[in-house]
Amino acid sequence: MSAGMHLLVSGFSLGSFYAVVALGFALIFGVTHAFNLAHGELIILSGYLAYFLWRALEVHPLATLPLTLALMPVFALALAQLLRLVREPFPMNSLVVTFGVALVVEQALLYTFSADYRLIQPAAPAMVPFPALGLVFTEAQITLLALSLLATGTVHLWLTRTFEGKALRATIQNPQAARLAGINLGRMRMTAFAVGGLLIGLAGPLYGQTLYLYPAGGLEATLIAVVLTIFAGVGRIPTLLLGGWVLGLAESWAALALGANWRELVSALLLVLLLILRPEGLKTRPEA
Fold first, then answer.
1. What domains does the chain contain, in order, with CATH numbers?
2. pLDDT value, residue 284
């Protein structure tokens, strides 16, 4: 496979995953205006759960998903209950509270797993050729791309085709009007956290197969989620994917052309440029 095709495969796979990382954050922020700084730490926690099952019990990485998908919504809903105790000004106080939660999770992971870098990766990764396209994918790339697109597509259909999803979008657009229309805002709040928790439960094992797990790694995931949410606009899944692909392609190019050590620097510069050039995002309103 040529270097150009390798860059495209790697970039689109990574970018699709970044969209999943940001989507859970965007839904929770859109409904509650809670600036969840613990989002990345919860993803890392989910990744460590998958790593433990894979390493200690020799469970296939995909087989860890039922546990993480079941547990992470519980953590997310527990965080929602904690944020109910936060007083005004809610956005600022929620930032402080979730920052404290992030520190607690990070220190718990550091105590349990140490600061060593860990990766969920079989000794001999399976390669899957696509002769018609002239491409060769690793099993991890196929899993990352397929599950990421499946997750974003499913959430998009849920938001646009179901009553619950439309009610959630109405709450994001105008909470007062949604309340007058008979929508239970408390229920929408819990729904946003539950769906966000499911996405965290999916993102964790994928993160562990794609990037190195370490206790302080949640900061990078949170930064990606925040900036892509600002760039795309709350509730805009197509533009969230576009932003993820731009970031994924930029990181893949940096790793290929400059070396893996430049990946984080190039991505950080791109994120800063996105904030400077498009601070209002591609779209400022949720999907209609």
1. 3-277 (1.10.3470)
2. 43
